[in-house]
Amino acid sequence: MPSTKHDDELLSINDAAALSGHSVATYRWYRANGIGPKSWKCGRYVRYWRADVLAWMAAQEASTARGGV
Questions:
Q1: Other CB atoms within 10 A of residue 32 CB
Q2: 47-63 pLDDT, tens per residue?
């Protein structure tokens, strides 16, 4: 069976915030403004794939390393 994203760990907003060192309020602001890591609703909860949070963090590091905002 081929590997899919579903093999990845699913994170709550609290888990994603803890992983990146941001607050839950910041993650809510990111989501409301269409920025931050990819997220989706699962019932009444917001979920993040761990790989998406890590990729977003790497992109943030890369953009600031080359003089971005």
A1: 9
A2: 999 999 999 999 988 88
